[in-house]
Structures are given as structure tokens and as C-alpha cells.
Amino acid sequence: MSSMDRRAFLQTTAAAGVFIATGAHAQATWPEHNVRIVIPYPAGGSTDVLARFLADKLKDMFGHTFVIENRPGAGGNIGITAVTTSPPDGYTIGAATVGHFAINQFLYSKMPFDPERESLTWELPNVFAVAVDHCPARTVAEFVTWAKQKGKTSFGSPGVGTSPHLSGVMFAKLTGFDTVHVPFRGAAQTIPAMLSGDVTFAIDNLASYVPFFQSGKMRALAVTSAQRWPTMADVPTMGEAGIKDFVVTSWAAFVVPTGTPRPIIDKIAAAMKTLAGDAELQKKFEVAGARVIASTPEETLAYAAKERAMWKDAVALSGAKAE
């Protein structure tokens, strides 16, 4: 598939749209029935949880249900491909993530969409997590010492090429110990494996792990954001824990098929801007381990370009490849 063909697949909720013959009335009255939000990962993961928060708010705003549909597989490519091949009428939206826009293009030999246009909807850090019953470490430094003495460790992630996978690879490289990557379909599978002792640690999306920190079953050793997370003020950043230049955040964008009429795109973009200013929703996201954000396409393009450079190096370091 040529680069020009790929560029025809996706546009974002704030990018320029192409008018099609759906009729001015249909555009003005959108939505007239339920809207589908495709989540390209399993239920229970951070993308699924956070999208459901937004879907509830969008239902209140527009008076129609925004139905969540989980379509996992191929690093999230299967779900987003389902979006690109849907009618461009505003009734199918995809929750694309950093993997789609800054990682998968270096991992997969063929991509079914253009990963260079997006508008952010949320951002969340990864968290260094261990199971209390199977790891005595209370700090990152203690963990590294313990792991080197243990000699055999493993870490879980939602799959090859995901930011948690690459975060684990980078951490092991920076701290100088060997570990084995164990890919799962999502946090809903990684967490039980950690709690049973089958996996030693994870540097995974914070939102999925918050309940387990609260219950005391898991311990957070560090967060990968530039600053400490507001609801976990006692947990240091990776930088504070002694791991320099380790600022990693996962982010997502709502995307729609190219050809979706601009008035519909503008409605979705305006709704997201409103939600980003909703104090109640922001608090809900914050407690879950994320934050709602809104940006212009230009701001997001600059951010994504910076991210690609980091993730390109991380993919090369991991040696991972996928078809």
C-alpha cells in the first residue's frame, strides 16, 4: 500500500474534513442514533476504561448512546482498521493510541492507515508495579538489586511493541539486568499473572493498576511522568528514583474515517474541548490515573513527531518485529 493510499484512510476529530453527499441536514442533526466507539484493545484495559468515561459524558451531551465495541488484535491495528473501513458518516469513532501513531509503524512491515495525523483526547503515565506477595522491593533501586540477585525475572505487557513492552526493555537496558518479556492480550491478563507470581513486574498504564494499589495487593515503585501523579504523591517519578531520561506517557486520540463531513468532526472536537474543561470528569480521570486533554492538530503533530523519535529507538533496541 502506498504512502498516498495510507494517507487517505484516517482523519482526526480536529483535522480538515472532506464533505461528502450525506446532506446538510444529516450533518446538522448528527447524531440521530447511537454512535460506535471502537476500542482496539480488550475490555478492562486503560483505553477501554477511559473511553467508557467519555462515552457516558458524550451520551449526556448528545442524547444518544456511544456504544463501546472492543476489537483487539495485532497491536491494536485490527480495531483501527475496522474504523478506516467504516462509512464516513460520523457513526464510527476509533480510540487510537500512541502505539498506532508512534510505535506500530516501526514494528509492522505494513500499516493499514496513516499514523501521522491525530488530536489528543487523554494522556496517562506508565507505572512500575510489583506484586506485594512476590517482590520485597519498596524502591526502584531495591528492585534492581533484588532482580540482579534473583537472576531470573520477567515482565508483562499488553503485547509486543506496546509502550509497556518497550518501557520494560528500556528499563532493563538502563539498569543492566536481564529479564524476559511475557506478552499478554491486556492488563486484565497481566495483572493475575503478576499476582500469582508468574510475572515479576510491569511498567504498564497506570489506569489499569490503581485498584490493586488501593487494595494493597500491588506496590507502585515509580511513575514514568515528568512530575509525580496527583493522587499518588508518595510515589516518585523514574527520574527521582534514579532512572534519568525515562519520561514515558501513553496517549490516545479519537479518529474517524477520512471523508467524515467537517461539521460532524467539528461537533466531536467541540465536545472533547468541553469535556477537557469538565472538573468532575477531570477528577474521575485523575483518580483512574489519566487526564483528559484537548489540543490543536498542529500541537499534536509536533508532539507526535517528538514521540516517534524516542519510540523508533525503543523498537530498535527491543529487536521486535511483527507482520
Short description:
With 323 residues, this protein is an alpha/beta fold. It has helices at residues 3-7, 24-29, 46-62, 77-84, 98-107, 140-150, 163-175, 187-195, 210-215, 262-276, 279-288, 297-318, and strands at residues 10-12, 35-39, 66-70, 92-97, 120-131, 154-157, 180-183, 201-205, 218-223, 249-257, 291-292.
Q: How would you describe this protein?
A:
The chain has helices at residues 3-7, 24-29, 46-62, 77-84, 98-107, 140-150, 163-175, 187-195, 210-215, 262-276, 279-288, 297-318, and strands at 10-12, 35-39, 66-70, 92-97, 120-131, 154-157, 180-183, 201-205, 218-223, 249-257, 291-292. The chain has 323 residues and is an alpha/beta fold. The protein has 2 domains: 3-123 and 250-318, D-Maltodextrin-Binding Protein, domain 2 (3-Layer(aba) Sandwich); 125-232, Periplasmic binding protein-like II (D-Maltodextrin-Binding Protein, domain 2, 3-Layer(aba) Sandwich), CATH 3.40.190.10. The strands form 2 sheets. Strands 1, 2, 3, 4, 5, 8, 9, 10 and 11 form a 9-stranded mixed sheet that branches. The protein has a two-stranded parallel sheet with strand order 6-7. Strand 6, helix 7 (163-175) and strand 7 form a beta-alpha-beta unit. Helix 3 (46-62) packs antiparallel against helix 11 (279-288), helix 5 packs across helix 12 (297-318) and helix 7 (163-175) crosses helix 12. The protein is elongated.
Overall spatial form = elongated
Termini, distance in Å? 14 Å
Number of domains: 2
* Average pLDDT level: 81
Specify the CATH class of the largest domain. Answer: Alpha Beta
Question: What are the secondary-structure elements, in order, as H or E?
Answer: HEHEHEHEHEHEHEHEHEEHHEH
Report strand %.
15-25%
Q: How many distinct helices? A: 12
Q: What gyration radius follows from the Cα positions, in whole Å?
A: 20 Å
Low-pLDDT windows of residues: 1-22, 111-119
Structural class: alpha/beta
**Would you give the CATH topology of the largest domain?**
D-Maltodextrin-Binding Protein, domain 2
Assign the CATH superfamily of the largest domain: Bordetella uptake gene, domain 1
- Biggest β-sheet: count, sense, barrel? 9 strands, mixed
Give the helix proportion (percent range): 40-55%
CATH architecture level-2 label of the largest domain: 3-Layer(aba) Sandwich
Give a count of the beta strands, DSSP E runs of length 2 or more. Answer: 11
